[in-house]
Amino acid sequence: MTTFWFIVIAFLWTGYFVLEGFDFGVGALMPLLARGEAERRQVLRTIGPVWDGNEVWLITAIGAMFAAFPAWYAGFLSGFYLAAVMVVLGLIVRGVGLEWRGKVRAKEVPLVDAAIVTGSVLPAFLWGAIFGNVLFGSAFATVMGGLLSLGLALVHGAVFVALKTRGPVRSRAREMGWVLGVILVPVVAFALWRMGAWPAYGAMATYAAGVALLWAGREAWAFACTAVTIALTTASLFLALYPEPLPGLTVESAASAPYTLTVLTWIGVLALPGVIAYQAWTYWVFRKRLTAPEVLLESRSA
Amino acid sequence: MDALDLARWQFGITTVYHFLFVPLTIGLGVFVAGLQTAWYRTGKEHYLTLTKFFGKLFLINFAMGVVTGIVQEFQFGMNWSEYSIFVGDVFGAPLALEALLAFFLESTFLGLWIFGWDKLPKKLHLATIWAAVIGSNLSAYFILAANAWMKHPVGYEVVDGRARMTDLWAVLTNSTALAQVPHVVAGSFVVAGGFVLAVAGYRILRERNVTGLLPRKKDFLDTTTPMRRGVDMWRAALRGALVMTAIAGAIVAITGDMSGQLLHEQQPMKLAAAEGLRHDTAGAAFSPVPGIEVPNLLSLLSAHDPNAVVQGIDDINQRLVTQFGPGDYTPNLPVVYLSFRVMIVFGLATVGLAFLGLFLTRGRGRKARPVPSWFARLCVLALPLPIAAIISGWLLSEIGRQPWTVQGELLTAASVSPGVSLAEVAISLALFTVVYGVLTVAEIVLLVRHVKAGPDEPVPAVVETETERRVPTLMY
Fold it and tell me: Based on the structure, what is the number of domains in chain A?
């Protein structure tokens, strides 16, 4: 049962990194991908309807850790205290930035954009740094982990923008995506090699395939590849965390009692398919590629 | 000053701050959903204008509630790791359920609502805002059930120094939770009602000034002047808020009475502290303000028996010393005493305002009474009352629980993270304070700006409404 719940937590983190991964990438690359206000809106609009729902994967992952492995939850967040503070502050300024951007005056928009970029880069880097530190403990691993998670998020985000837009933004995103992808090859290859598990080797392959497919203009396939890359990277992370998610703490000793895990399992089994179904439906509703003029004209609550 | 004190300050500041936005989100969301429903059912354009206008205010505020909520979920582990390890088995479950059942619903469907205006059929689009506000209200239930467990732990046993859940159903149907959830949720509707009253009151005053006329009877009977239409729309919003505040206020009062009785049974120290009662007293008196005492009222309120014995602070402390060993088991008495009174007086004042408004603006159709300008002004001035009341309620509830995090099981002093240093908490507290301070200013500026600017669309003219309503009939 504890192993099952460890897998559930790994699954929730995977969902979070895959989904919010491109949100972070889009937020961070927004000033580089867009020329002018209309295009900036077009870029941010790709994640507009979904980013908040994506972030709930983190809230659920953390909540599930609290419920299923209290000692892991407590040790993880108190052990990385200041890093967790910075992650949260990043998510705060990014969240209000995305929600308020359409409601502030034109001269305040640059400030909001700075918040969005900072709030995207900071957590994207820090998550990798934190987990890199858990796995290897060295400062070098911390930096490499951060660069890996930030790098994957940037490429994933660029692919997502290329997939969801039309016009100059699309070609810029495509170019940015594969160029960044090639530049980051040493970092990604080294970090994944150091993780050393079979999913990490798989992630190397899908990463290479994703960058190549983007270069070839096959955006949907490229997106599938970068998504799988992040999923496999997360999988190898959690393989390495088992059975000691924190130094000196085993999954067994951190776990809640069987009763709690059983009721949580039932509720999760009943609820999670519904969540996945309606989130998928959201992507279906907003499946159309966006152009800058359409985004300016569309009717929304803002 | 040590790490424990700062951690407590940080938790208090971030939680009260979070709670400035959440009640408004909960109540205003339902109000906006109600407006959109009215638009869907009647087709009257002014309901759409109001939906979009209050929808914007709702979203400005919603963002703050969401992002400050992330801090809450992280903070138990960050600053209160000993607490988290002790309670996680029980306390974590409602938190996980909150994320899984409520937050996903809320955030996903709100995204659909914001961007779905021209992508979803009208009916489905209306359903998305309802799904989102159901999510908000469900989240209130789960987090309050978790919170109630801290005050009145049930459905658990302590094994090897950790609480273990034995009955989830008992946790979710904790009597404390069942009284607290409707009390806080209805309180949230009072806050949102007070907010809408202030906004609509301001808009009414503004429309009257803009037309440069003192309200005269004939202006309100003439349906073609712009003034009539504008004021009429805000009168509708104001009336809606009055109804919401009055009904919610009644529920707050009833559930507050229930909570008082539960305090008598479950948390006698908090009750004694709220009244400043030093010793066990039969037929205890209640003093709404120092100096005035109503005999037997406290016994009557808390036990529904004028002669019941209400336990006093010093005597309870003596009993707790016998049970748990030497120590001071009293909360901060002045804060608890004061917040209890602010909650009751300000809360009742808001509800009184609502009933007064309902009386003043009674009547329908041609007999509808206009909103008196003095009342509109009163609504604007009364905005701080419900907010102060609900915040005081939390201070009473949580400071009154001290020195325990889990009543009778775990002391606050034993809950704090041992590995987090004073310097670290000082840094995080400083960062949170700065960021929260800036965001408060930004939120207030944004809200004020949008209230002043009014709806994006001009107030719909009657002619337009008629045409638009006629088009479908001609086409289909």
Answer: 1
Inside any domain, residue A121: yes
Residue A35, in any domain of the structure: yes
Spatial CA neighbour of B235 closest among B459, B467, B466:
B459
ipTM: 0.89
Question: Model-level pTM?
Answer: 0.87
Q: What are phi and psi of A131, to 5 degrees?
A: -70, -35
3-state SS assignment for residue B164? strand
Rounded distance, CA A288 to CA A82, Å? 40
Under an 8 A CB cutoff, do B63 and A76 touch?
no
| CA dihedral angle for residue B82, residue B84, residue B90, residue B92, rounded to 10 degrees | -170
**What are the pLDDT digits (tens) for B89-146?**
899 889 888 998 999 999 999 999 999 888 889 999 999 999 999 999 999 999 999 9
Query: Taking CA atoms, what residue in B is nearest to A98?
Result: B63
Q: Quick one: closest CA in B to A60, which residue?
A: B99
| Residue of B328, B298, B476 whose CA lies nearest to B411 | B328
Distance CA A34, CA A173 (A): 9
- From B6's Cα to the closest Cα of chain A, the distance in A is 14
B206 pLDDT tier (thresholds 50, 70, 90): confident
DSSP A221-274: HHHHHHHHHHHHHHHHHHHHHSS-SBTTB-HHHHPPPHHHHHHHHHHHHHHHHH
CATH of the domain at A158: 1.20.1630
- The verdict on a CB contact (< 8 Å) between A64 and B109 is no
Tell me the pLDDT tens digit for each residue of A121-141. Answer: 999 999 999 999 998 889 999
Alpha-carbon A91 to chain mean position: 12
How far apart, in whole angstroms, are the C-alpha atoms of residue B6 and residue B411? 16
Number of H helices, E strands in chain A: 14, 0
Could you tell me if residue A109 is inside a domain? Answer: yes
Rounded to a whole number of angstroms, the distance between the first and last alpha carbons of chain A is 45
Output the CA angle B375-B380-B385, nearest 5 degrees.
Answer: 105
Shortest distance between the Cα of A202 and any Cα of chain B, in A, equals: 30
Domain boundaries, chain B: 3-275+314-463
